[in-house]
Amino acid sequence: MSPVEIACDESGSEGENLVGGETDVFAHAGVRLTLGEAEACVREIRARIGSPAEEYKANHLLRAKHRPVLEWLLDPAGPLAGRGHVHLTDKTFFAVRAAVTLLAAHGTEELARTLHRAGPAAFGADRWAYFLAAFTSVLRLKPRRGVTTSPPEFFALARELAAVPGEAGEIMGRLCDGGERVAAYRTRLASDPGLVPVLDPLVPAVIHTVRHFSAGGTPVALVHDEQLALTGERVLQLKATLGHRLAGVRFVDSRSDARVQVADFLAGVARRIASDELNGHGDARLTGLLRAFVDTGSVWNHPG
């Protein structure tokens, strides 16, 4: 069976910098369009917006004066209906889930959801943010910015928070015995260039994208915007994980492939809409339109 090409791009990528960065949501989008269909979509967007810019980005669509164009793109009768897919990641919840999964002996999704919900009130917003920054630091061999914490310092902090009464403190207590697991992970990270960092949301999002578009049995060949995080070793790991579902990965400059440019539009507007919703000032109309594209396996712990 011949594979179908799916064009992909992302928005909000800051690698393993999950907290304290420029963005709080990571969005990965895939579109199933022919080159001709994508070129027609881009031409229509250009005609409707009328900007002289050489390259259009999602920000053009997100301007208030271009709201009708954005609604057209996401509409159930629009050019992406049934052809677009978005995987969303709330970066903070992704970090909490990684902490619970890695550090607790029997960490579960439900424990992560509870800690994510209760942590800020139980420990204080600043202390909670510092804990998450410390966790992301301790899992990176060479932290480039922000909090820099050694494993002993991190677990001393976790023990302090575990003394706080309530369910958040109880869950934190279950994380305090994860020292050996952190040491083992850091050792693997140093020796295996193909190991997918537990703090990087890109590879899990790509896996969800491939599974979505290959659900009918047709293998997928990804045409992806150039992405340094998808190294040769990680592409091999993707193929090992996905088997026959993934026929290959090819990288292009989004400016040279209209399909990838449309995926860039979808990822960018999805990230902004989701971020607004996350921060309590979402647009009900846009959130409703986006919902049709969002993967049910998105890393999200919020209503809406």
From TrEMBL:
Classify the source by domain of life.
Bacteria
InterPro entries, per this entry?
DUF3800
Pfam annotation, one family: DUF3800
Give the protein name, as stated in the record.
Answer: DUF3800 domain-containing protein
Q: Which organism is it from?
A: Amycolatopsis australiensis
